[in-house]
Every structure is written in structure tokens, then in C-alpha cells.
Amino acid sequence: MARVVRFRHHGGPEVLRIETVDVPPPARGEVQIRVKALGLNRAEALLRRGTYIESAVFPSGLGLEAAGIVEAIGDDVIGFVPGDIVSIVPPLSMVRWPAYAELATFPAELIVKHPPELGFETAAAMWMQYLTAYGALVDIAGLLRGDVVAVTAASSSVGLAAIQIANRIGAIPVALTRTSAKRVALRDAGAAHVIVSDEEDVGARLAAIAGSNGVRVVFDAVGGPAFEPLTAAMAPGGILIEYGGLSPEPTPFPLFHVLTKSLVLRGYLVHEVIRDPVRLARAKAFILDGLSDGSLNPIIAGTFRFEDIVEAHRFLESNAQFGKIVVTI
Description:
Blueprint: E1 2-6, E2 17-21, E3 30-39, H1 42-49, E4 65-73, E5 85-88, E6 103-107, E7 111-113, H2 120-124, H3 127-140, E8 148-151, H4 157-169, E9 172-177, H5 183-188, E10 193-196, H6 202-210, E11 215-220, H7 227-232, E12 234-242, H8 255-261, E13 264-267, H9 271-274, H10 277-293, E14 300-305, H11 309-318, E15 324-328
Parallel strand pairs: 8-9, 8-11, 9-10, 11-12, 12-13, 14-15
Antiparallel strand pairs: 1-2, 3-4, 3-6, 3-15, 4-5, 5-7
């Protein structure tokens, strides 16, 4: 028996319940871990509300990131033994492999073993944000030293990961944030420049920062009317990678800028990296190297107890956090 978080209908954070259930042993090719920490992601709030790319099957679990200790291994699993300290690369389906639980089971190929000194909270906070940012900036855009990269929703865990990755490569990260409340924190987190979109002319600021070369890479989680000033400031042949859709307003297609500059506008899901063993191996090596040399360092916005999962989700949806929300068990 183990405690798990489930919900039986769509809604706000209050629909989440902690229930005690029987947990079956891991199947062939799976590893079961005793979870010590969870990393929260906006995708979990979307699943809970019924607006995610995956549909809940009630009663539904949820959760994409965890770190803990190997409890049991299924048949045909090699390289792991009970007691190993591990974390989880986010699975393709959180309904099939939910992480919010005292005992959670995942495909063995998504289990990563690492030194205990990494710490459970840090380990639970790293894979989604760094894989998402790496896949876009390095794997797809081929970010280079000296490139100007504009990062929207910059105070999110993925936005902060993108800033750190850009700095590790030697690119110039420009953070976009709605209000000035997080301006200093973003500079302290490594942003070379910060643009407050509610108070400044985004296009003019980007043009002033990038100069005649323009912004080669835009990493956007928002969409909406910002597409116009973002693409106006882009370099010829530049690429805009869209991985979200936070804006409630329609997203115009910037036809003039796309045509005159031969721009690439590309949708992106981290799943395309996770499901490709070669790309995933490259990403894992880059991230683990960055954690080892200190150039990558997850920023924790707040830590909650497992029993306070509802409050953790309320904080997640408040947009007040700066970085990753972690839940400990």
C-alpha cells in the first residue's frame, strides 16, 4: 500500500486527493522507486483542468518528475539495483506512469542514476526544464556563441533553464517578463538583458540589444500578439520555437516578417527528444556535465510537503513563483 495523488473530475487544485492504494510490482522493463521529491510542471495543472494534450482516465494520477530510491526492478532490467539513488526523465504519458506517489513505476530507460550529493530536491527539479530548453536551443536551433536568444516567460523553470544553457554556450540571453517585479532576479539569474513587456516596447528594445544582426533565436511559451514584435526583431533566417500557448489572445501569423526574412516558426514538444534514444543521450550528457561544472543549477521557487499538494498547485497557478516548485515526501 502507498499514498498517491489522484483526481476524479477536472477542476482546480481542490480536486486533488491523497488516496491509499495497492501498488503492483514493476512489470518487465520497469523500475519502481520510493519517491522522495517531486518536481511540479504546468502540464500537470493542464491535465487536472482537462486542457492538456493527454486525457485523464478517472481516477487519474498525474506528475512527470520524481527523484528517489530504487525499490524494485522488473524482469529484463539491468544496471539498477534496489537502493540506487535515481531521478526520472519525464515519461511520454503521465496518466500511464504518474509520479505523484510514494511508490512510482517508470520504464527503465527513463531512470537516471547519479551521485547522492546531487540531492533529491535538485534531482526532481532538473529534467523537464533542462530537457525542454536543451531540445529547443541546442538540438533544434543549434545555438552558437554570440547568438542573441529571446526567452519569454523567462521566470518559469524552463525560461531560467534556457538562460543558463545560453550562458553555458556563450550566447546572449534576453529575458522577457510581464512586470518589473522579477527584473532584478532575472539579471541575478544570468539574463544579459531584461525586457518588461507590459512597460516597454518589446520590438524596439530587442532591436537595440541585437543591433543589425537581429535576434537569431526566439524561445517562446506565450504566443499571442507578441509574435509581431518578436519576429520584427529577428535576424534573417532566424528561428522562433514555440513550446507553449499561455496567451489567451489569438496568435497572428507575421506573414511579412516570415517572407522577407525567411524565418522559421516551429512548434516543439520535449517528447520529440525523449522518444529518440540518440537525441536523449546527447541531452542527458549535456545536462549532467552542466550540473557537474556548476553552469546549470536548478532554481527552487518553493518546497511543499506531499500533504500540501493542493497548496503547491495553487502556488503553481499563481504565476508568482521564480523557478521550480518541489514537493517532498
